[in-house]
Amino acid sequence: MASSSIGRVALMSLHPRHAEAILAGRKTVEFRRRPFGQPVTQVVIYATQPIGQVVGSFVVTDIDVASPAELWERHGDRGAISRPEFDGYFDGSITGAAIEVGHVSHLADHMPLSALAPGLRPPQSYLYLDSDFRFGRHTEDAPAERRSGNAALHASIRILRAAVRSMSRRLGELGSP
Fold it and tell me: For the whole model, what pTM was predicted?
């Protein structure tokens, strides 16, 4: 996936040690058993319990889909995970994905999911937004200094809030007679 394409913003659940490693720059690849179903260019990081908060975001620069053995060979040294942990995670998988981490933004004050939308639960893996809520479209008119760092993360969070409201409305419509 080219880094210049505009895709979706995803909310991704990560164990705290993996979230902290990404934010610290020690982990530059996030391994997943399945690739995203749609192009994603920005990931908002939700650190699971005991943190239970949104802690930052990163730009997706590439996604490599391959066998676990190939992923380890190409990216194992950048995943901040041991080979036994990697093998255990991918046990039984034929393919997987290595999501390459680009620019990382730290959220100075961690944010609960309820700040995105009341009642929002942590995704099992990730939650991505429909094409109406693209990251780039909502930030391109802002001054350059507001498009960088935490401003980009806050723009992502605003987009997530709008997407959750939209999805809630759609689910309500589906449940209506």
Answer: 0.72
